[in-house]
Specification:
Distance between the termini of chain A: 38 Å
CATH topology of the largest domain in chain A: BirA Bifunctional Protein, domain 2
CATH architecture of the largest domain in chain A: 2-Layer Sandwich
Mean pLDDT of chain A: 95
Shape of chain A: globular
Oligomer: homodimer
């Protein structure tokens, strides 16, 4: 019993200390841990299996729109990184440098890729010649490295896993369309697969990616009221590819510029998942990215017939295509329940002597704790519906939470008030001057523009800070 | 017409210059190319898609035996690499060193992983305490980097993609069994999926992995008679984990050592695939790893009804689950045939006005060029069988080639004679002394032991070089 108490007690409550709760959940659910390499993570089986489901889902969405996967080197020669001015300024302070190969000092340093625009452009500058070579719509799944000072599991680490898509197109319009298409894929993915609602739109000038002309972002709201930048899609115009001298001969025999995009989603999404859905008992996973959708827990398993019935059910569920496990260890049922809850497994099925007698099982939902008695003849068929309901309910609850945490402000008093308790997003108008944003950020204790709102009527004509004419309305929020 | 000739001419014949043929096929099929990072590859869509199919197949086989995927950092602190003496000696000369992070010089250097035994052991030394924590059966798909001097696409490059499995077990027997189990998985994979035959067995002492007690290898024979080490599975005993102080408390309350294995297969396998199956017209892919199983080529596509019929067929094949493409470009059919052949697509379907009139299509096999007339009503169902036949025939032909290139030798005259023309594998006996092997290697122009033969009667009692008592019989071969 002492051990069981310990298991539950190891998670701080969210209200008490959200940051500590997060750390506790990541540790207790064994998703990842820090390695001996400062600031770098070991992605453990429970965490990596979530990433594999995310990859499979997103990769399918990409390929349906014609994306092809590739893999480019993890090293970038220093001279390549320097070709685009904004880009090098943005990344130089945070890359790791390789200076020696084997026993020799290298003539030119390489950095470990913090992102790969430069390598893709370098490749295309050598291989793209004609309009027949366009478009290129490529993606790679890989790790990148940024020498961050402060790190947190999944949210910010030196090395992290992601996908980075890179494309070039013959026209401005086609590239812009691709930028928006990928932003839409990210929105669909967050809504349908991670059950995470969001606000989304273009980034303000000062929040854009280094070298980009436009950045579209998906911003999700965490349980503590902070925003998480969850995916971004960038439009580069022709500035970046021009710096690499990528030109093509068009049908009219003219030499022309290409237009570029890039877009990425990382293991940060797992951090978001935890902070949107988790509760004081641990992780709560949406079924579509749950490595195990259902865990069978035999009750009084020493009694005759219990384990047999449990194994039979296990085989039937497995055969039907469910991701199912059985916990037939010698731990107590209470301990097993507690573990299943910590791991966020969407459902458990309890089966004991009484259930067998009544030809039934008990299904317990992780998200609501609702218990359902289901006939043993129907469970294989019904579990699908239960998982779908959980997926839908989880989104709806999170969407309700998001909507309840979007506010408006037309002056700074209101703004400060709304942000006093980490309230979420606040809509407010702005002249577009980064200095004004910096002032707002200082006064509110960290709120900045998360994205611009372009499809709604502005709630004010004035910048919330300087009172000069407003250029934008934006979602403001404190962010991870 | 000039262009069509060029396309075909760009591939040197195998008999004329095998190395050049290989380079030509890799380039013309657009599998990969060298990047601006010396010795590192760009894996292009055609090449990477093969790797994705290899990954999916192998990953499924792994998971069926309980393997869990993880991801550990790409950087290894220098002190960790040094914990196991043989290991550091084996790898130190060929790693890349990171010495600066951001603007700062690091206190301790990191190498980019050449392999990850050290990181897995480091993690387990902190997390494994009890017999309940065992076994760990983990794998990661990642890239590794070895600062090679001479490189060739897929076969040897500084950075390459692979999977590395790492496991620890409570007993010697269990670890040994896992080592052999994974070697068996590689054998099954090569036979069933890549249609590549091989010889296999334990490596001789001097050919083992740095730090391993036993290495099991799969050695495939290329068309030029050279062997390719195609996958390896290593048994470390407890030496390696002891160096990292991984101990566990067993049920009897005693502190005990664990036993370790590791096993890997890399993008080298794609190089093997090319050199076993390719011909003078380009790549020939076994259907199971062909990103496109069938390409539809409309004939006289300007004529009424042809493109419609081709699109209808395309949709039907796609719906039935085939990986199918259609080439409706404005190139000539001859040009399209040539491209399909270069790319190694296992089948093409030709459909023209006459075919439509006769309610048929023409299926052409890439491997044999055999043409088959198939009713348009039956093609969706019959293509499956055609692809299976190709897969089987490709293996059978390669197996026949392998068997025709295994010889025996009991003295050096015979040995030299057999290796004069890059004949393949030669069975010969050996005292086990690395010096004798070195002498044989020098005299034969490069033949070394590829693996030991332990389940056959020895063909001689004497070492082929020194005539002292033979300890082993081995397959000898020149290798990539």
């Amino acid at each position: 019993m002492a051990k069981e108490k310990k298991l539950v007690k190891n998670i701080t409550s969210r209200e008490e200390d959200f940051a500590q709760w997060y750390t506790d959940v990541v540790r207790e659910a064994q998703l990842c841990d820090y390695s001996s390499v400062k600031g770098c993570l070991n992605y453990l089986p429970n965490g990596y299996a979530i990433w594999e489901l995310i990859q499979a889902d997103l990769d399918r969405r990409f390929k349906e729109t014609g994306v092809e996967n590739v893999y480019l080197p993890e090293l970038i020669p220093e001279n390549l990184l320097q070709k685009e001015k904004d880009h090098i300024e943005g990344f130089a302070p945070e890359v790791a440098w390789v200076t020696h190969g084997g026993m020799e000092k290298l003539q030119e340093r390489f950095c470990i890729r913090p992102t790969s625009e430069t390598l893709f452009c370098d490749l295309w500058s050598r291989t793209v010649q004609s309009y027949r070579d366009l478009p290129k719509v490529w993606n790679q799944w890989c790790s990148v490295l940024r020498w961050e000072k402060t790190t947190r599991p999944f949210l910010r680490s030196r090395e992290f896993l992601w996908q980075e898509g890179h494309t070039i197109h013959a026209t401005y319009e086609e590239a812009e369309e691709r930028t928006k298409m990928m932003a839409q894929i990210y929105r669909d993915f967050y809504k349908e697969t991670l059950a995470m609602p969001f606000v989304s739109g273009r980034k303000a000038e000062n929040e854009k990616f280094a070298g980009a002309q436009d950045t579209y972002t998906v911003e999700a709201l965490m349980h503590d009221g902070k925003a998480l930048q969850a995916a971004t899609s960038h439009f580069f115009g022709s500035g970046f590819p021009d710096a690499f001298d990528i030109k093509y001969i068009d049908k009219d025999n003219q030499l022309k510029s290409v237009y570029e995009t890039s877009w990425g989603l990382s293991t940060r999404s797992i951090g978001g998942l935890i902070m949107v859905h988790g509760d004081d008992d641990g992780l709560v996973l949406p079924p579509r990215v749950a490595p195990v959708e259902c865990r069978i827990i035999p009750i009084a398993q020493h009694k005759e017939g219990v384990l047999d019935a449990a194994y039979t059910l296990f085989e039937e569920l497995k055969k039907a295509g469910y991701r199912v496990k059985i916990d037939d260890s010698d731990k107590s049922p209470g301990w097993k329940f507690s573990e299943q809850e910590i791991l966020g497994i969407p459902t458990r099925i309890e089966i004991g002597p009484k259930d067998i007698e009544n030809h039934q099982v008990v299904v317990v939902r992780r998200d609501t704790r609702e218990k359902m008695v289901v006939s043993i003849d129907e469970i294989v068929q019904k579990l699908k519906g239960i998982l779908e309901t959980i997926q839908k309910d989880m989104y709806d609850r999170a969407e309700e939470f998001l909507q309840a945490h979007i506010d408006t402000a037309v002056d700074m008093d209101e703004m400060v008030e709304k942000f006093k308790e980490n309230r979420g997003f606040v809509k407010a108008c702005w002249c577009g001057d980064p200095d004004c944003e910096a002032e707002v950020k200082a006064v509110t204790g960290g709120a900045s523009t998360r994205c611009l709102i372009e499809d709604e009527e502005m709630i004010s004509d004035e910048c919330i800070w300087c009172k000069k004419p407003a250029k934008h309305m934006a979602y403001w929020g404190k962010s991870y």
